[in-house]
Amino acid sequence: MNRLKQLVIGVATALAAMPVLAQHAGHDAAPAKAPALQSTPRTHAAPTSQQGQGQGEDRSRMDHSKMDHSTMDRSTMDHSAMGHAAGDLPVDAPPREPIPVATDADRAAAFPAVHAHHQHGTSTHAYSLVDRLEVSDADDGTALGWEGSGWIGGDLHRFWWRTEGHALQDTVERASMEGLYGRGIRAWWDVVAGVRHDFGEGPGRSWVGVGIQGLAPYKFEVSATAYAGQQGRTLLQAEAEYDTLLSNRWILQWRAEARAYGKDDPALAIGAGLSTLEAGLRLRYEVTRQFAPYIGIEHGRAFGRTADLRRAAGHRADDTTVVAGIRIWF
Question: Has this prediction a pTM greater than 0.85?
Answer without folding.
Answer: no
